[in-house]
Amino acid sequence: MSTSSTAFGEWAEAQLGLHNARIDREISGGNSNLTRLVLHDAGSLVMRSAPANTISPKAHLGVQREAKFMAALAGHAPVPDVVSWCEDSSIIGQPFALVEFVDGLSLTDELPQSYKEPDAVNQLGLQMATALGRIAKAPWSELGLKDMGRPENFLRRQVERWLQVRKDQPTRDLPELQRLGQWLLDHLPQDGPVGIVHGDYHLDNTLCHRERPELLAVIDWEMGTIGDPLTDLGLLLMFWGPRRVEPPGFAHVQAVSRHGAVIDRRELATAWSAASGLATGNIEFYLCFAFWRLAAIVEGAYGLYLAGKVDTPYARGLEYDVPALLQEAAMAAEGEW
What we know:
By secondary structure, the protein is an alpha+beta fold. About 40% of the residues lie in helices and about 10% in strands.
């Protein structure tokens, strides 16, 4: 047993009363932080930490943020229970969180064979919208989250930030990116709600039951903040329903829900509104914002491809993906959603 494993076992015994706790292996889940399975005599847990090779002294802050949001949302939304946050880097070499092990699936391009119901995807979509509504409804200011975001001018800062990034890091001529960015600034909601924002809400960042279409947990909270929760709804709707342009942007992303057989986006918006108690009258803005913001972000990766710094199918595909995303953003701005 390595020194770190011994130190972890001793810490888990002393702090949590876990007998024979050991780090077993790396498991899937999360795009940037490390996710490992922890075994002990009474069961399993998940350890979340910054990547093992990180050199940044602030690399753990995303995991800390994630743990804080999940701990605050316990009882308010389906999130894994947070068992402990350990700031002591001497235990495994960096701070870490221990959370409940949820034995579920993260879905993206196909459903498991066990999902026999013909409307399995629709069931999951409505459950996701309801869970997101519960998150938006959670009393964030009473849950110790007052310092976890800056809700004032939340939307304006987002739009101005990505307009500036694309201006400072030019790639190619994309007049729609600038035009739609200005449209968003000109149509900023004046009375948007304030609540908890996940920041990356889609099926990939949930865990679902292995045998039936049931949402078990919302995971990957590193981008959690306090802002306008309708941005999360816009993101959920962005990855739902038939693709409206050809070739579509990001055809591989959440393929299970991007086809004409699923229920209308408006049904998900209605479910979210029922769970949150909030209106969705300006949803075309938020859907436009979701498509536009994703396009503005990933155009940076296409710039790396043009500069010869990366050459992957994902980066090459952005030649078409980004304009397609902007086209769908324009359609949303015109009320076609």
